Sequence to fold (380 residues):
Amino acid sequence: MTDHKEQILFKKIFSRYDQLERLRRQIDDGRLSQTTIEKLNRESTRKINEIGKAVRDHGLETPFFELIDRYALDKRQVIIVLGLLKRRLRSEAPFRTGREILKTIFEESYEILEGLSYLNDTSVLISAGIVSPEVAHKAADELLEARFKLSDQVFSLIVNTFCRFEIGSKPIVKKDTTPYRHNLDYLGDLRKLSILYRKRATKVFNYDYWDNIGLGVSESVVALERQIEDLRHTIAKKLKGAKEPERIYTHLFEQTYHLSEEEEIILVTLLFQELTEGNAYISAVDLLKLVSRDEGDLLKQRSFFAKRSTLVKNQLIVLEDMVNGKELTGEVFMPNWVIELMLKGQLDNEGKIDTDARMDFHNYLKNLESSEDFFDNLDL
Fold:
């Protein structure tokens, strides 16, 4: 299915929502007869059901509808999303009260009471981060006056879908192939590659470790693989043209240890996890999913965390809290000395390390029995 087909169906659903809102405003007019109100209520119910049918039968693998499928949103939850999207599109104030949201969907007062479950902290919309409350509300009676907005993440997901292409045209992507000037340029591209790996993992394994990245992933797995391949070639080209390759410390580090791309991604992911989130640990099994293309790949890639693997035997990563010595049950972190070499090409209070010194360092690490010995020796 194409983006154009998604836009057509989205327009149809949004049109039904606009009609529903107009019907609800008419119903709120106190001058109408009971007969007219009942007629408008029936028409409102029909619009809700039409939205539900369109969502149920969509058959599209595109951002908005993948979001619906991933969290199994029902027709009323979809209507809440549409209403909050409309508010963000048409007003500088993105919030609507719980009462405003529920009045659009429900006719009877009792139904509004039942509908409060769509807005409490344990609801799918709130717990998945699709809808954001202005503040946390503990008491149920606060939900009617509480204010909610469509989350920034989901809003960007939907808006970007429509900004990415002009209908009937192909996307134009300008690639930056400027040779690397310094290490941070290179690390920036590795960061982008890591994010593509994370998007792929979220799609392939349908899990939520990197939910802030996976939610709203518009690309198919095939498209993500193509982006990974394109970026891989771009990185190689920019490395080849680098005028001062000795300043690309992270690449020199990778060459010293003969790291594969998957091993590079593991280290870069750990690095940025610590730098951006202040959390040095990622579970081994999540990192295994990160570098695996499918379930069959999990069996091959598990060797990255074996005792004799490049990463473990050279103590580029450390596994802790393993259950019965099983590597994939452990938590993984990267020692500080590895971070220093990747970022600066040197250890604190040391001169830059040339290739021979790096190889000596590599051979030295081979003979260490544990990270404790290593740090003890450093203190001498």
